[in-house]
């Protein structure tokens, strides 16, 4: 068991398609590539998790198996349920079918995350686009919540609603890192506009780079590994370094 508990980092937005899974996968892989970090990646998008696919791993066990055995779960056996990716990231995949999601309760998620915190330096949690109890138990464990928005008006509107809810739930403001994904100056909405509408400073930006993101996700190879020189990979590395510092 570790002396200090590991850090849970949740990647969240109440909207789908903004890049949560893309960031979660690539950030986990980046963190595992530095400082000999032990990194776990938990797919809590229970209805539509696609991390196993994005990392080209066979989900021979999933969060549903841990749930089945939850009373006996402890830090010394949790690895039996995780799947090791070639990057050394240990992955806990989402249920294979959406109807299995109902077996996973918020109490199970609490236990899984507390157990992983006894073993791993970082536990990156990918989430589904909602404020359900499963996500709230992840947010409760998190030392950092990366709230993702993109630069289109529907996403910004949803982010305003989502950030309002997060604030009303009393998560500390400095726990929340606002990440602007798919950034491209040509879209006519500036970083400043987004900050004004959301009443929050953007912590980090990830550029739009369709060819890198789609080709890496189709191959099941996170881009921070094979395309480390691309500016999108550098932006993920910056987020990882920022976590390391604080
Ligand atoms: N920075 C980016 N540039 C280009 N495409 C991106 C970027 N981030 C994500 N995408 C694409 O957007 C889509 C949604 O991303 P995903 O990570 O699955 O979002 P979410 O998990 O929030 O639903 C995917 O097709 C992904 O490849
Ligand atoms: Mg996703």
Automatic annotation (TrEMBL):
Highest taxon above the source species: Bacteria
Keywords: ATP-binding, Nucleotide-binding
Gene3D superfamilies reported for this sequence: P-loop containing nucleotide triphosphate hydrolases
One CC-aspect GO term: cytosol
A Gene Ontology biological process term: negative regulation of cell division
Pfam families attached to this UniProt entry: ParA
Gene Ontology MF term list: ATP binding; ATP hydrolysis activity
Protein name in the entry: AAA domain-containing protein
UniProt source species: Acetoanaerobium noterae
């Amino acid at each position: 068991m570790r002396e200090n508990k590991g850090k849970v980092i949740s990647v969240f937005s109440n909207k789908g398609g903004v890049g949560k899974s893309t960031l979660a996968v690539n950030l986990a892989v980046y963190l595992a590539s530095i400082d000999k970090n032990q990194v776990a990646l938990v797919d809590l998008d229970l209805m539509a998790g696609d991390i196993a696919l994005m990392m080209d791993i066979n989900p021979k066990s999933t969060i549903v198996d841990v749930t089945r055995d939850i009373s006996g779960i402890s830090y010394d056996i949790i690895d039996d349920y995780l799947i090791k990716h070639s990057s050394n990231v240990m992955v806990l995949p989402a249920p294979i079918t959406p109807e299995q999601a109902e077996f996973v309760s918020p109490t199970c998620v609490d236990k899984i995350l507390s157990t992983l915190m006894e073993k791993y330096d970082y536990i990156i949690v990918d989430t589904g686009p909602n404020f359900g109890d499963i996500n709230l138990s992840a947010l409760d464990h998190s030392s950092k919540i990366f709230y993702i928005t993109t630069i289109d008006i529907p996403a910004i509107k949803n982010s305003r609603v989502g950030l309002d809810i997060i604030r009303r739930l009393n998560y500390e403001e400095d726990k929340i890192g606002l990440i602007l994904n798919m950034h491209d100056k040509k879209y006519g909405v500036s970083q400043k506009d987004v900050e004004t509408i959301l009443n929050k400073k953007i912590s980090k930006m990830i550029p739009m780079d369709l060819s890198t993101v789609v080709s890496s996700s189709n191959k099941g190879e996170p881009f921070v590994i094979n395309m480390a020189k691309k500016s999108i990979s550098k932006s993920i590395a910056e987020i990882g370094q920022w976590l390391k510092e604080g």
